[in-house]
Write a structure and sequence with these properties.
alpha+beta, CD59, 2 helices, 7 strands, CD59_antigen_CS, signal
């Protein structure tokens, strides 16, 4: 019983608390910034920029479950140029110029995993 309880505690520490991604979520004719917590299912901060020669620029920033970066050149005068940038760090969609690299695991997650593996080794080999 103690072993099972110890194992559950170790797994809870290794999993760590869920961390919701924070992104700028807004729509404007300029580089807007409005921080917001994303839904748990969101893995990306996305920025879509569209240049419309007839109606002006449009910048849309949001949280997204999936994201595919794109860049297109103007085809017709009315279609304009469009780009989608994707990133995975908190508030990484602040800038319009670049996308940030993918998020790396948190140090506390690695520490929790190491602790859980150590406890499992102690349980499996009690003579250590």
């Amino acid at each position: 019983m103690k072993t099972a309880l110890l194992l559950l505690v170790a797994l809870a520490v290794a999993a760590g608390p869920a961390h919701a991604l924070r992104c700028h979520v807004c729509s404007s004719s300029t580089n807007c910034e409005r921080a917001q917590n994303c839904a748990a299912s969101a893995r990306y901060c996305r920025t879509r920029t569209k240049l419309e020669p007839l109606t002006g620029n449009l910048v849309e920033k949001d949280c997204a479950e999936s994201c595919t970066p794109t860049h297109s050149l103007p085809g017709q005068v009315s279609s304009g140029a469009a780009a989608t940038l994707c990133c995975q760090d908190d508030l990484c969609n602040r800038s319009l110029q670049s996308s940030a690299p993918a998020r790396t695991p948190l140090p506390s997650t690695a520490l929790g995993l190491a602790l859980a593996l150590s406890l499992l080794a102690l349980i499996a080999v009690p003579s250590l």
